[in-house]
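user: can you give me the structure for this one chain? tokens are fine.
assistant: on it. calling the predictor now.
[tool input]
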Amino acid sequence: MMESSLTASPQFTQEVMQDVAQVIVLEANRVIRTLSLPKPADRTAVESVLESLKAIADSTCPELAKTLNIRLVAIRNNIQVNQVGV
């Protein structure tokens, strides 16, 4: 039986992390935009989604996790939130 081992090159890992960060940013921005719709999303639901995205970002892209945390604090304090950038 052939033994297989999965090893990721540093470049591959870096590219994957950038892709993960980009997906998180896109999803966070979609959720944040729902706050400014004519019939806005429930703030609790938005907070919940952003907390979930932050949990993923904590282990994959810590800088993005800090940004998401700032957005969460602003939303909880009823401060208008800007979109997240990469």
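assistant: here you go. The chain has three helices and no strands. The chain has one domain: 16-76.
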